[in-house]
Amino acid sequence: MDNDKWQEFFQSNVKSNLKRVFVKVMTSDHKHWFFSDYDVWYDVKKHCEENSLFIKDLHLQFRSHKCIMNLDDADGVYLVRSVLGGFGIETKQYMTVGILKGELVHKQMWLCPELIKEKEFEDPLDLCFEEALITYEQEKKTN
After folding, report:
1. CB distance 59 to 68 below 8 Å
2. Whether residue 119 has pLDDT greater than 90
3. Contacts of 59 (CB under 8 A, 6+ apart)
4. Residue 12, SS3?
5. pLDDT, tens only, 38-61
6. If you average pLDDT over every residue of the chain, what do you get?
7. Residue 104 belongs to what H/E stretch?
8. Band of pLDDT at residue 25, cut at 50, 70 and 90
9. What is the DSSP string of 45-95?
């Protein structure tokens, strides 16, 4: 991940950016994506699929707190916004990051905006949202 590009992006609107949780992605063609609007994930997915690319780096960041995801041996990456709540308890917002390995997605739920990892679990591929998953088993092996 190119920290200079991140600093330039962040400094361009510091006041607003201090309030946001960011997803930072670098694809295998070294293109960088910095976003807090989840819909940009669909653009990343399209870019990877159309160009046979994979995600090389994925970070979550809130202010100076950075969480680097380990993508070693991944067959794909899963990213989705999620909430957890119930009657009489406060609703919590999360970014759920998953690493596809074989037919299982190893998920981590990161509490927002604090970026505290609260839950880890595995789900079979067929229980995951297809639009949130970028698979690249073949692309990564050929690159």
Report:
1. yes
2. yes
3. 1, 23, 24, 25, 66, 67, 68, 69
4. coil
5. 999 999 999 999 999 999 999 999
6. 92
7. strand 104-112
8. very high
9. HHHHHHHT--EEEEEEEETTEEEE---TT-SEEEEEEEEEEETTEEEEEEE
What's residue 122's pLDDT? Answer: 96
Domains of the chain, by residue range, sit at: 3-142
Tokens representing 90?
């406060």
Contact 100, 76 (CB under 8 A): yes
Tokens of 45: 């997915």
Structure tokens at 19: 């309030």
Residue holding tokens 């993508």?
71
Question: At 131, phi and psi to the nearest 5?
Answer: -70, -15
Q: Per the structure block, which two tokens stand in for 114?
A: 């604090």
- Does the pTM surpass 0.85? The reply is yes
